[in-house]
Design a protein that fits this description.
mainly beta; 7-stranded antiparallel beta sheet; 3 helices
Length: 372
């Protein structure tokens, strides 16, 4: 038992004074070595390390300090490599651009003034004549001669008829005041009283009413004579007794009273033989002398046609609206410009109310209209 008791006594501390709590014996012998102080110290070290790290990082990322702003203001003035501004007094003017007028003589060269301080832009530049850069005044803009010079008045020329030309351009020639001419669209009526109105150099009478328009060169003219033609059976006795009655209307090529060519649908009554004839008549008058050619036709609507090709003139008619029948083809020495249109004649005491329709005049070689 002795050894065991010795060991137990050896491992036990000195005896605790009476009345001292056992918990006090468990406290550490030094305050700084206590667990709370150790924890507080650790936290403090950690916070200090974080603050130090933040300060070092801030200095490392901070921008470099700005350079002094008055460094340029006190720097010595260097020659300006750029071209001089126009508001600098000591800048040399640029050489003048070449002009067409003689250059103004340059002023006598003067010594260049000592360099002065540049004038601020807000300060107006001193007025000093610059003879080297004086430019001549701009010339006034030239005005085109055609714009101010009136164009010469052109010599009037006869109008060329367009295809399908109707009564508009036709002018009345040789019609006495007792005849009435009325146009209604493409229809034309020529009303002649019961007296002598014909184109006849033999009778010395050239008073048949006619409507004409100037035409130059080749052309094609056509017209339709409609209705019946009935001149009656009693001839005229004034100004002289006639052995026949006659009425007709159609196309006319007119040069003058002694030179013309007419193509008419006619009705003729021979009072001697008591015959009535309906014919298509071609009458050519050259130098006051007439020659005639005719073909028999029915007393119904007929379309008549002139075709001029150089000196040749073709005279034809269309009885049915489909086929053309040539009456005569002849060479006529008309001038380059003639008058073309329509006419009507009456050699009867009975009034003649002629009706013409669809007059067409085509210049050149083109031929238009119905029945082509």
């Amino acid at each position: 038992m002795a050894p065991a008791s010795a060991v137990a006594l050896a491992g036990r501390s000195a005896p605790r004074p009476a009345g001292r709590p056992e918990l006090l014996d468990r406290l550490p012998t030094s305050f700084f070595l206590s667990p709370p102080m150790i924890a507080v110290g650790g936290v403090t070290v950690m916070l200090y390390g974080m603050v130090l790290f933040a300060v070092v990082s801030a200095r490392r990322n901070a921008p470099p300090p700005p350079e002094p702003t008055n460094a340029v203001a006190y720097a010595p003035t260097a020659p300006n490599p750029t071209p001089p501004r126009p508001d600098v007094t000591d800048a040399k003017p640029a050489p003048p651009a070449p002009v067409s007028t003689p250059a103004t003589p340059k002023a006598t060269a003067q010594p260049e003034p000592a360099p002065t301080k540049a004038v601020e832009p807000s300060q107006p530049p001193p007025s000093r004549p610059k003879p080297d850069v004086v430019k001549p005044a701009p010339e006034p803009p030239k005005t085109e001669v055609a714009a101010v010079t009136p164009a010469p008045t052109p010599t009037p020329t006869p109008p060329k008829p367009a295809p399908g030309e109707t009564w508009g351009p036709l002018s009345i020639f040789g019609s006495p005041g007792d005849c009435q001419i009325r146009a209604d669209g493409d229809r034309l009526s020529i009303n002649i009283p019961g007296s002598l109105h014909v184109l006849s150099p033999e009778l010395g009478t050239m008073n048949a009413p006619r409507l004409l328009v100037p035409v130059r060169g080749d052309f094609t003219a056509r017209v339709t004579v409609s209705g019946r033609i009935l001149p009656g059976t009693d001839p005229l006795t004034v100004p002289a007794p006639l052995p026949f009655t006659f009425q007709g209307a159609g196309l006319l090529i007119w040069q003058d009273d002694h030179n013309y060519l007419r193509l008419e649908r006619t009705s003729f009554y021979d009072a001697v033989e008591h015959k009535r004839l309906h014919r298509v008549l071609v009458e050519n008058c050259r130098d006051g002398k007439t020659t005639n050619a005719s073909v028999a036709a029915r007393d119904s609507d007929l379309t008549l046609k002139f075709e001029r090709r150089g000196s040749e003139i073709r005279c034809s008619y269309n009885p049915d609206g489909r086929n053309w029948v040539e009456v005569k083809r002849q060479n006529v020495a008309f001038p380059g410009e003639v008058r073309v249109g329509v006419s009507a004649s009456n050699a009867s005491p009975k009034p003649f109310n002629s009706r013409l329709e669809d007059f067409q005049l085509t210049a050149g070689n083109a031929a238009g209209g119905k029945g082509s």
